[in-house]
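Retro notes, item 3 of 5
We never archived the inputs for the zinc ion complex last cycle. Fixing that now. Sequence and ligand:
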Amino acid sequence: MSVENNAPERLTLRKPDDWHVHLRDSSILPFTVGHTARQFGRAIVMPNLKPPVTTTAQALEYRDRILRAVPQGHHFDPLMTLYLTERTPPSEIERAKSSGKVHGVKWYPAGATTNAEHGVQDIRRCDRTIEAMEANDIPLLIHGEVTDPTVDVFDREHVFIEQELSPLLKRHPRLRVVLEHISTRQAVEFVTQAPARVAATITAHHLLLNRNALFTGGLRPHHYCLPVLKREEHRRALVAAATSGNPKFFLGTDSAPHLRRDKESACGCAGIYSAHAAIELYAEVFEAAGALDRLEGFASSYGADFYQLPRSSELLTLERRSWTVPSLLETQQGALLPLRAGEPMPWSLVTADTTA
Ligand code: DOR
Ligand code: ZN
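Structure as it came back at the time:
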């Protein structure tokens, strides 16, 4: 990675990957895949479709639909995942492994978030399937929040770590896990102290925003996501982790499109769309922390190492050129508001043609 000086005009790094993204399905794929593929070489694709992607056969069909939506001139490798249910048999894990295309199994606690209603009520009912994941070395990707409605929504991640994740890691000593989209200091501390088989992804929005962003001048549904944004002390802990050079922390946008009408509603959906500007947003965070030289490890190296995939041999260049995020993006299914809608961005992607 080349960083010219303290305030470089250009930044060239190994092409990054997104280790957690929602591309959705059908007519919106050209929109979501277009944004993701212009900056990322690979992405771990979440399986929370309607109906969820629970079998290898479904994952392979979904992968084909994604590949058909990749814009010409881009190389993009969708890394598929399965949605864990209490009925996922151990044999499905064997099929996933032998496909070579499925790279993780996602544990959604039932009801924890968007399309999580088919998720797991009691993870101990999945022990045999998780043993097959240990045997086949397929990581478990975790939405780490308890669903108990009596637990305060801001405490659900750290309570999950105590009540669910710690016992799970003891029951499955060889299981590799990614705690997804961590949002608290407690998660940073837990992952830092855990063995190397435990890693975490961090989103751009959890690095950029604290929970005040939900209430600036009124209710801001476009800043609502799960896990919900936390206090400033937690955001700072996440920035410290992301910029630390610790390989357990790597990039996962959790970019999650919801149409404007579904966000601006009496019961708005959880999810922030960031794929239109993801690597530029992370560059901004790393620059503000004085850590641009560590962006490449976080964005382009540590995730590949954890998933036991080769690091990319392509490069990506960003330049310091201000642009304004559109205030609305039109998708094939309706309009959505992207993160930073109508606001300036200091970094721009230099298109692949000029970096090749
Ligand atoms: O904010 C979120 N949106 N969090 C999730 O866990 C799911 C995601 C979605 O699929 O919309
Ligand atoms: Zn997600």
